[in-house]
Amino acid sequence: MIQISERYTRICRAYTQLAERFQKLDVEHMALKNKIVPLLQVLKTYRQTVEVLKQEKAQMAEALETMTTQYNELKVLETLLKSDSQSALLEAEGQMDLVAQTLQEIEADSDPDLSDADKALLEEYQHGEMELYLLEAGDRPELMESHSVANDTLRAA
């Protein structure tokens, strides 16, 4: 029986040592948990910050791409700002003004080289008042020839 009691005593000692070690590990575990929780909170905050920064980076990249596209579109127009282009543009505007002025003059007086009498004669011819005269002159070939030349001249103009 002494042997059995010694065996139980050894088992009790081993159990007591195990319980002491477990308690020590439990205390260390709790201490580590108390240290890790703040660390995990900081890590979570950093992750959220990283996500926000990634979103901002994506937005900035998109804005940069848009600005780059706009810059490339506007870069073509830079040549218009050069002095050569400006002078060519001014010259073209002057030419446009001249053309507009010429068109106005043509509307006001389509035949500036003709005298008033020639213009009136041409007006009569264009409105058909001279056709009767030309029909009467049909038997005179020299008048018919001048009528043909006049028609050809008017068609060419």
Shape: rod-shaped
The average pLDDT score comes to 81
The tally of strands reads 0
In percent, how helical is the residue content? over 70%
Uncertain spans, ≥5 residues at pLDDT below 50?
Answer: none
Discrete helix count = 6
Which H/E pattern describes the elements? HHHHHH
The class by helix and strand makeup works out as mainly alpha
Largest sheet, in brief, is: none
Distance between the termini: 147 Å
Strand content: under 5%
Radius of gyration, CA atoms, in whole angstroms: 54 Å
Explain what this protein looks like in three dimensions:
The chain has six helices and no strands. The protein has helices at residues 2-75, 78-81, 83-108, 116-126, 131-136, 141-156. The termini are far apart. The mean pLDDT is 81.
Ordered list of secondary-structure elements with their pairings:
Layout (H helix, E strand, L loop, with lengths): L1 H74 L2 H4 L1 H26 L7 H11 L4 H6 L4 H16 L1
Keywords:
single chain, 157 residues, mainly alpha
Entry summary:
By secondary structure, the chain is an all-alpha fold. It has helices at residues 2-75, 78-81, 83-108, 116-126, 131-136, 141-156.
